[in-house]
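Batch manifest line 248
LIGAND: nicotinamide-adenine-dinucleotide
JOB: complex structure
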Amino acid sequence: MGFLRDHTAMVTGGVRGIGRSIVLEMARRGAGVAVTDINTDGAENLVREIEFLGSSGLIIKADVSDGAQVQNTVDQTLAEFGKIDILVNNAGITRDNLLMRMSEEEWDLVMRVNLRGAFLCTQKVIRPMMKQRKGKIINVSSVIGIMGNAGQANYAASKAGLIGLTRSTAREVASRNIQVNALAPGYIETEMTAHLPQDVKENYVNAIPAKRPGSPEDVARAAAFLASPAADYITGQVLNIDGGLLIA
Ligand code: NAD
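JOB STATUS: finished
ARTIFACT:
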């Protein structure tokens, strides 16, 4: 089903984990994909996988928290594909610590990558999207941004901030036919969560009504839906992908 045929997507932090799955799902649905990441080791394989799915990929090494690098990424993507229809702000990091012990560096770094990074990428793709009167922006937030978590005040604040960014941007650009939504994944098995102690992982799974962790593909399918024409009248929303963890 090539419902993203003739679309171009830019995915930040797309070389591994959830971002990589989003890249492959977008390619499977027909989109050309610009993959940007601060670490591009092993990215040649990803381009081959994208091509195997019948699409084209471009890897750009860039730090989302650096405005000049983000501008260069957008310029390179436009030069290669001619347009950007979809932006997925997926790059994110953790620097966990109890608030009492959290250093200013731990706070600042998480806010820079997770929140400032999404702001910069959004700001730099919004002009070409406005010109073409069409666009989808998907911010990868987290259930932690909604519920909070001991030891993750910086991460939770950045992910809650992304929800505010999503809703405000959605209001600013809705009349230009640009939709802005957030995904709030729950506990997803990736390298980011691999280091969690076994008992913490078990506690998460016990608290999830579906009784299993999510996979990157669970998140990627939701991202492809929000990027598709089927979601043209959905904007400013937060979609939880958490096996029921946050059923209110
Ligand atoms: P991951 O660590 O496996 O992948 C993150 C990717 O972002 C990596 O490829 C990394 O190189 C890249 N990155 C880091 N800093 C960057 C920067 N400054 N500029 C550009 N790229 C950068 O993590 P993941 O689990 O795949 O998480 C992806 C997103 O999903 C993150 O925003 C994370 O907060 C969010 N999320 C993850 C979970 C989970 O359970 N894994 C749950 C909710 C939300």
